[in-house]
Amino acid sequence: MDAAFFDMDGLLVDTEKVWLKIETEVMKVLGGVWTPEHQTHLVGGSMERTVDYMLAVSGSSVAPEVLRGWMIDGMVAELAGGVQTMPGALELLGDLRAEGVPIALVTSSLKEIAESVLAAVGREHFDVIVTADDVSRTKPDPEPYLTAAALLGVEPVRCVVLEDSPNGVAAGTAAGCAVVAVPSLLPIEPAAGRLVVSSLTEVDVARLRALVPPASA
Q: Could you tell me the pLDDT band of residue 214, with boundaries at 50, 70 and 90?
């Protein structure tokens, strides 16, 4: 295993409930109603997708850039109070670091939101950070994971992606990486090159290494 790539929302940190809170509050301002079912349409998606969907659901004429600003400000303010890491996440990061495995954080969230999370979790866990601001196409496109691999100088086929959403799993698979899925709001089925677990506490470095094909002679 040449590197491990961690998703952020729902995989590294328990922020899906924060997104739901902010989306609900902003939707009230737009004059609409937001439910957990609405949120499932956006898991693992970009801010642009979120904004477009919220405007469609509410029928509001608010400018997209204004709504985008409300969402960013709301998330940054909420995350300033701290974030909760997902079970097993910090332990796995520490074990990977102890074995010298390069680690990237690869998220569809904007840089401002990722920075708020990193301020709480610790930037020192990651060698590379890839956010929505660093790519032209976000998940499920493979570009975010291909970008992380290029920045670390590793081959995607020798890397493991850890994800919680179908969009993220699709991105990691399309990039050629092995994938560990820890489903959050949406189900994810096992498949070739994909390990599905209920928690990161079920995963250790040896289990990640076992997912990667042997290096070529």
A: confident
User: Is residue 3 a contact partner of residue 103, using CB atoms and an 8 Å limit?
Assistant: yes
DSSP sequence for 85-103: BPTTHHHHHHHHHHTT--E
One of 2, 7, 73, 204 is an active-site residue; which one?
7
Strands 178-181 and 159-163: parallel
DSSP code of residue 84: P
Q: How would you class 117 by CB atoms within 10 Å of its CB: exposed for 0-12, middle for 13-18, buried for 19 or more?
A: buried
Fold exhibited by the domain 3-14+84-211: Rossmann fold (3.40.50)
Between CA 165 and CA 7 the distance in angstroms is 9
Task: Based on the residue annotation, tell me whether 164 is a catalytic residue of this protein.
Answer: no
Please, are residues 173 and 179 in contact by the beta-carbon 8 Å criterion? yes
pLDDT at 217 over 60: no
The tokens for 97 are 């670091």
* Token code pair at residue 143: 């570009």
Q: Where are the domains of the chain?
A: 3-14+84-211, 15-81
pTM given for the model:
0.92
What 3-state class would DSSP assign to 5? strand
Written as one letter, the residue type at 119 is A
- Could you give the CA distance from residue 117 to residue 76 in angstroms, rounded to a whole number? 9
**Which one of 2, 9, 14, 127 is the catalytic residue?**
9
- 95 catalytic per annotation: no
